[in-house]
Every structure is written in C-alpha cells, then in structure tokens.
C-alpha cells in the first residue's frame, strides 16, 4: 500500500533501515546485559537479598504502603473530579466576573509543578494546625470511631499530598470537561433554553452529563495519572508504597549490601498492577458507555423492522 505521508522506501533504504534497527537493538541488548552483570556482581540477585520478603513484618509494611497509596488516590480522585466540574462550569460561564478568575486558577494550577505544590502545602503552618485541630475534635466528640478517623485521616502529610493532587488534576479534569462541553451540539443547548431551562439547569442536566460521557476515556486516563502522582508523597515522608519500599531498602542490610533492586522489582509491579486495573476499568466503562449510547438507535431500528 502506498502511503500519502511519505514516499515508499526503496531496496537500499529498506536495507539501511534494517541495519539501523539491528544496531539499535544490539546496543540496547548490550547495555541491558552490562547493567545486569554489574548488578549481579554487586550481589543484588542473591538469595539473601530476597529473603526479607518472606518475613511477615515486611509483607505487612508493603501492604500498608499499598493501602496508604489507595487512600490518597481515592481522596485525590474524589476532590479532583469535584474541582474539575466546578472549574469547568465556572469557566463556561458567560459572566466574566466568574469565568476570568476560574481561568486564572485553572491555568495557574496546570502550570505549577505538582512536586512544588505538594512541598509548599506540607510546609504550610495552617494546614498542620487545621488537620491537628480536626483530629483532636474527632477524638473528643466521637470517641472510638473518632479516634480511628483521626488516626486514619488526620495526617498533615496525607492532606498535603491530597490537596496538591486535587488542585493539579482538578485543573486538568476541568479542561477535559470543558472540551467535552464545547463539543455538545449547539442545537441541544437551544432546545434546553426553549424548554425554559436556566443556565445552571442547562449545565447540570444537558451539558455536563454529555461532556462526561464523551470524554470518559480522557477522564479515566487522567485518573490513572492521579494514581501515579501519589508516588510523589515520599518527598514529604507520606508512607505510601514508594516510601515504604525506600525504608525497606535503606534499613535492611545483607552480607552483599542493601536490596535496592529487589525492592524495586517488587514495588514496581505493584504500581503497574494498580494502573492496569484502572486501565481495565476504563476500557470496561468505555465499552459500556458505547453500548448505552447506541441502545436508543438499536431500539429504533428494531421498531422499524417490526413495522
């Protein structure tokens, strides 16, 4: 088949590109072999390096890191989606007093590096005092359940990470939703206005639901990014999975050194597994969304056949 983007390569070009491919693959294979041999000489693949993972305490520490990662992820996703809907709605407002500040905030949070935002929040006095006060109030007024809530959620490091993730990803979700809202056909807006809907009702009942449906794959992709962003919590000593792996690697001495590579080979697949689960859920939602969207068309075709 002839491509319209570039000319078809001739025999000499194909041979030259084949040689380039062999050279690149051979170079990468040689580099990986060299790295593997150096790590093997350093004792990173000896049995003593992996023995730590048979201990129940290490397994519990890794499981606790996974649970802390999931906790920060769920809170970050919930707040980022709420902020995304709020920012998208205000940016689409016809009132400049509402849309201009929302635009400034969205662009600011999108431009600000997430790591700097998390670190700045962690070093903010009001966040620490507020979380501490809320935790004390929960213990005083709710007894046992309040103590559990305070021990589980009243952590300044957790909320510094969650707020930073929510602001950054909320701005990204707002742009995704705004693009989906602008893609809604103009006729549907006009029909809703003709039915007497106000602007708020129009956004809630017509525009936002369709924007969410059309942009669902992009929304789920950003949610996967949110999960990976939780790994930045190790900078502020939030005890998520990456921080747990760092502690295990630095505090477990073996006759051949510290088990950095074994910990990496255990922690890395945990992140990959969680991302794959989210990606699978995204594909399922996308396929379900497609079937739901085409259901009225299939019903209409069935009625026409019966007639």
Specify the overall morphology: flat
What is the CATH fold-level name? MetI-like fold
Count of DSSP H/I helices: 12
**How much of the residues is beta strand, in percent?**
under 5%
Q: Which regions have little confidence, pLDDT < 50, spanning 5+ residues?
A: 293-298
> What does the radius of gyration come to?
26 Å
CATH top level assignment: Mainly Alpha
Question: What is the domain tally?
Answer: 1
Provide mean pLDDT, rounded: 83
Helix-strand makeup class: mainly alpha
Distance between the termini: 45 Å
Helical content class: over 70%
Compute the number of strand runs. 0
CATH superfamily: MetI-like
Helices and strands, in order, run as: HHHHHHHHHHHH
CATH architecture label name: Orthogonal Bundle
Sheet with the most strands, sense and barrel status: none
Question: Can you characterise this structure?
Answer:
The protein is an all-alpha fold and 307 residues long. The protein has one domain (53-255, 263-285): MetI-like fold (Orthogonal Bundle), CATH 1.10.3720.10. Helices cover 81% and strands 0% of the residues. It has twelve helices and no strands. Helix 3 (56-91) crosses helix 10, helix 7 runs antiparallel to helix 10 (216-229) and helix 11 runs antiparallel to helix 12. The protein starts with 10 loop residues before the first helix and ends with a helix.
